[in-house]
TrEMBL record:
Top-level lineage group: Bacteria
InterPro entries, per the entry: ABM_dom, Dimeric_a/b-barrel
The name this protein goes by in its record: Antibiotic biosynthesis monooxygenase
Species this protein is from: Vogesella oryzagri
Keyword Oxidoreductase appears in the UniProt entry: yes
Domain named ABM: residues: 4-67
Record flagged with keyword Lipid biosynthesis: no
Pfam families: ABM
GO molecular function, one term: monooxygenase activity
């Protein structure tokens, strides 16, 4: 059974365009990874600094492998540099 990861980001104003560029890359490349079924990237209409990603994975374990690779490669650190607060995330199943 697949699992959905929902993660919300609040971006620093001066990093907004750079974060959007990263998200465009994520939108193209994340679905190519083993275990990733789909991704939706949402930008809040009233707060342009707020983003929510909805990722669908084969399993939590597959997502965990992806996260471990992002951390070890330094990619996660680059994303964190763009944020004004810690991201909030959780795993969800469809009902």
């Amino acid at each position: 059974m697949s699992v959905n990861l929902v993660i919300s980001f609040n971006v620093k104003e001066e990093k907004l365009q750079s974060f959007k560029d990263i998200m465009n890359d994520v939108k193209i490349n994340l679905p190519k990874l083993d275990g990733c079924q789909a991704i939706r990237i949402l930008n809040h209409l009233e707060n342009p600094l707020a983003f929510t990603l909805v990722e669908t994975w084969d399993s939590r374990e597959m997502h965990g492998i992806h996260v471990d690779k992002m951390i070890s490669s330094g990619q996660w650190g680059v994303i964190v540099e763009h944020l004004s607060s810690a991201p909030v995330s959780g795993y969800f199943s469809e009902v």
